[in-house]
Structures are given as structure tokens and as C-alpha cells.
TrEMBL record:
PANTHER family: CYTOCHROME P450 26 (PTHR24286), STEROID (22S)-HYDROXYLASE (PTHR24286:SF194)
Protein name as catalogued: Cytochrome P450 90B1-like
High-level lineage: Eukaryota, Viridiplantae, Streptophyta, Embryophyta, Tracheophyta
Gene name of this polypeptide: LOC109707100
Binding positions for heme per the UniProt entry: C429
GTP-binding as UniProt keyword: no
Length: 483
């Protein structure tokens, strides 16, 4: 048997892999060049050959900083500029009016534009991937279901019970790794609402591991090579779908519906037009959406409260007063009304989301030619609505790098309208209040029962998402503040 020479192999590889890649990038570059010829198209840097500004845009930076790339281009070009990513010229907006315009015109002038590798992992039927009437129809099912938890006192108690159990099981000689704890907590809260899954279920631990792998792969470089995080995530996806499908089949085999079946899975099963693939993708996306941002926000709350003890003290007073009032009325368990009365706690969460920017930008694609504030955005152009750039803008928020929950005490409508951690318009995150509820109840339990301090210095780093290089290890000490 004759084997081709090394030079022949290189020619074959170039022909099959490299040439098409170059052709695609060149085609994108020609399109981008035509865009830049329009004098109203925002100016911006071309960056490096092939990759453009990819590495500059995603370069890790401190929590309260936009990083050198954004700061330099905002200074040079203003609040709206363009950048080149892999041959495509995209518009980057740090302008709050343009960002709001993009979000308010979702499905009319713009649509979601998530990268292809994320689409492949999340699936065709997840809510975040849908557009038009299909999106509206599924959202009309999910939103009423989520709003049900306002009347479900048992769910509030479940969150508190879960926090207590996980604090005990995560405690390793007085040390807790907050990243691991927060991921478990947010996973089990949303998995309970999605498909009735609790930590006691036999498949729970493996499904959690698969979700962690899946989550890491979504934010990794989309390189499908053996050993890469993206490849591992691709392998984790069918395991997750299989676990959801098993729950679905078990429900279908039952002769009656239990109260425990009053979850998203049960709501979706009532929709006769949905296939099992549709239902499984929806559940997968729902759980991912609940874990990705909420777990990061929880880590940031731990970090910020330790570094700002005055805010922790103020919040502890609020929760102690809550418990005193309940005891005077002969009550013990937390309710929805208790959550709504945690005003300073909501200030802390809002400020954490503002300074932390767990979802720093939104990616949209123009479906028509758009002119706004003197800028021209051609049809097919990706617009990066940079929410973090607004949240950290000193002309919008005074001393934006300072953690200051008291800034939300005033009824400043303009300030509130500029806080958009959950997006806006028809695409406003359907689980935003669920996230606030679970963080509030978790904090209620923690600050009344524990003190904590860092074991080693570990500071948040922002890039595609917020990470803690050492997973934020803390030393916890049980203290009953309610006595």
C-alpha cells in the first residue's frame, strides 16, 4: 500500500481545511469593506489579520474596568464604534440610547445573534435560540409558569432548606469553595423548577457534573479538538438530554399527575405540538440560563460583602428585623412578602449586577438597514450592545467602580432604567425575578448563621464571563445572629 508524501498531505489539508477558512474570511472582509465605505458606518480598528480584535476584546480585565481595548476605542471613536472579528465588521455600542433602541426593536429591526458554536450546544428549540412567533408562543408558556412561584410558599422554604444542606455538605474543614457551592445551589434551585430534580435524586450528581462541563464549554474557545473544553461540552450535551428524556418518559408512563409534576416539564408536556426534542432543548436552556448568571452573581455577593462590611452589617439588620417581626406575629417561615420587603438586600443585588456585569453584552443582528443618531447600520450587521460600558460609565453612575448599594435608595427612574443586567424589551430575561428570589433567600440564611473571610486573596476577572481564578475559597464560622 502506497502512502502519500508529507508534501501531498499538506496540500490535502490546505485544500480541505485552510482554503475554505481563508475564503470565508476574505468574503467577510469584502462585506466589511463595503460597510466601511459608507461614511455613516461607525469607524473602528481592523485589528489583526484573520482574527481581527478577538483577543483584545476578550482580554481578561479587573471587575470594575472595561479593559484597554474598550477604553482606548471609546476615547478615540466615541460611544459607538466598529470592530473586526474574524473578518466581520461589527458595531459596538456603549451608548445607552442605542442599546435600548436595539432591545426595544427586537424582532422588528434586530434579532438574537448568538455564535454558531453556542447554537450547536444549546439546541434548536431552547428559548434563547427562537425568534418571531415561535419565540412568543414558548415565552407565553414559560412566563406564567415562572410567575407561579410567587404563590408557592413551599418553594421559598425549599430554597432555604437547600442553602442549609449545601452549606453543611460543602464545608471541608471550615473551608468552602464559593464557586462550587454557588453552582450547586443555583443548579438545584432551577432544576427543581424545571423538572422536579432534587439533590436526593439518584441521577442528580451526574447531571450536575455534566452541566458544569457543558457550562465551561459554552464559554471556551470553539475548538473541536480532543481534550478541548468545547469538545467535552459537546459530549456532555447528549448526556443531559438523555437525563431529561428519561424524566419525560417517566412522566408519560404515569397514570396520574402529582403535585411534584407542577414544574416546567409538566407545563411543556401540555403543549401537544412539542416533540420530545423540543421539550428537552427547552429544559436544557432553562437550567443553563438559571445557573450561568445566578451562580456568578452569588460568588460576587460573597466577595463584595466581605470587602464592604458596612453593607453586610446593614443587610444583617434588615434580616434580623424581618425575623423579629415574624416572631411577634407567631410566624417562622419566610414568605413571598418577606422577600418583597428586603429592600436593602435588593439594593445589594442590583449593585452587584451593575458592577459585576455577569452578562456584559448582548449580540444582535440587524434585519434591516438602520439609521440612528447619525449612524448607519446595514442589514446583516452584528451589533454588540455593551451593557457593562453603560454600567461603568461615570456620566451614568457616579463613582462606577465603587460598590455602593445605597445609590439605589433614591427613586431615580433614569438610574433604574440604565441598569440592564437582564437585557430589555421582549428579550428581557424571563427568570430575572427568580434569580433575585433565590439570591435573597440564600443571603437571608447565610448572614443570620455565618461569618466568613477569604482563605487566600482571590479577585474576580472579567472576560467572556466573570471568573475567580482560585474558585474563591472562604473560611466559614457558624454564628447564630438571631439570638
Amino acid at each position: 500500500m502506497t502512502f502519500p508524501s508529507p508534501s501531498t498531505v499538506l496540500v490535502i489539508i490546505f485544500t480541505i481545511i485552510v482554503s475554505p477558512t481563508i475564503a470565508i474570511v476574505v468574503a467577510q472582509s469584502l462585506k466589511s469593506y463595503r460597510k466601511k465605505r459608507n461614511p455613516m458606518f461607525p469607524p473602528g480598528p481592523m485589528g489583526w489579520p484573520l482574527v481581527g480584535s478577538f483577543f483584545s476584546f476578550y482580554k481578561p480585565r479587573p471587575l470594575s474596568s472595561l479593559g484597554g481595548f474598550m477604553e482606548q476605542n471609546l476615547s478615540r471613536y466615541g460611544k459607538v464604534f466598529s470592530m473586526n472579528l474574524f473578518g466581520e465588521m461589527m458595531v459596538v455600542s456603549a451608548d445607552v440610547e442605542l442599546n435600548r433602541y436595539v432591545m426595544q426593536n427586537e424582532m422588528r429591526l434586530f434579532r438574537n445573534n448568538l455564535p454558531a458554536h453556542i447554537h450547536r450546544l444549546i439546541g434548536d428549540f431552547a428559548l434563547v435560540m427562537l425568534i418571531g412567533d415561535v419565540y412568543r408562543h414558548k415565552k407565553a408558556i414559560i412566563v406564567p409558569f415562572i410567575n407561579m412561584f410567587r404563590q408557592q410558599a413551599d418553594f421559598v422554604r425549599y430554597i432555604e432548606h437547600l442553602a442549609k444542606g449545601l452549606m453543611a455538605s460543602s464545608n471541608k474543614g471550615g473551608i468552602i469553595y464559593v464557586r462550587e457551592f454557588a453552582t450547586k445551589f443555583s443548579f438545584y434551585v432551577v432544576a427543581k423548577k424545571a423538572m422536579g430534580l432534587t439533590p436526593e435524586d439518584p441521577e442528580a450528581e451526574q447531571l450536575l457534573r455534566d452541566y458544569v462541563t457543558f457550562y465551561k464549554g459554552l464559554y471556551a474557545a470553539p475548538i473541536n479538538f480532543p481534550g478541548s473544553m468545547y469538545r467535552k461540552a459537546l459530549k456532555a450535551r447528549p448526556n443531559i438530554i438523555k437525563a431529561i428524556k428519561k424524566k419525560l418518559d417517566q412522566r408519560k408512563a404515569k397514570e396520574s399527575v402529582d403535585e411534584e409534576d407542577d414544574d416546567l416539564l409538566g407545563s411543556l408536556m401540555k403543549e401537544s405540538t412539542y416533540t420530545w426534542e423540543n421539550i428537552c432543548d427547552t429544559i436544557l436552556g432553562f437550567i443553563f440560563g438559571g445557573v450561568a448568571t445566578t451562580s456568578t452573581a452569588i460568588c460576587l455577593v460573597f466577595y463584595l460583602l466581605e470587602n464592604y462590611p458596612k453593607a453586610l452589617e446593614e443587610m444583617r439588620k434588615e434580616h434580623l428585623e424581618c425575623m423579629r417581626s415574624k416572631k411577634e406575629n407567631g410566624e417562622e417561615k419566610l414568605t413571598w412578602d418577606d422577600y418583597k420587603n428586603m429592600r436593602f438586600t435588593q439594593n445589594v443585588i442590583s449593585e452587584t449586577l451593575r458592577i459585576g456585569n455577569v452578562a456584559p453584552n448582548l449580540w444582535k443582528k440587524a434585519t434591516k438597514d438602520v439609521e440612528f443618531k447619525g449612524y448607519f447600520i446595514p442589514e446583516g450587521t452584528t451589533v454588540v450592545a455593551h451593557l457593562a460600558a453603560v454600567h461603568l460609565n461615570p456620566s451614568v453612575f457616579e463613582n462606577p467602580g465603587q460598590f455602593n448599594p445605597w445609590r439605589w435608595d433614591t427613586k431615580d427612574v433614569k438610574k433604574a432604567n440604565n441598569l440592564l443586567p437582564f437585557g430589555g424589551g421582549v428579550r428581557h430575561c424571563v427568570g430575572s425575578e427568580l434569580a433575585r428570589v433565590e439570591i435573597s433567600i440564600l443571603l437571608h440564611y447565610l448572614i443570620l448563621n455565618y461569618d466568613w473571610e477569604s482563605v487566600v486573596p482571590d479577585h474576580p476577572v472579567s472576560a467572556a464571563l466573570v471568573t475567580f481564578p482560585k474558585d474563591l475559597p472562604i473560611r466559614v464560622r457558624a454564628v447564630d445572629y438571631s439570638l
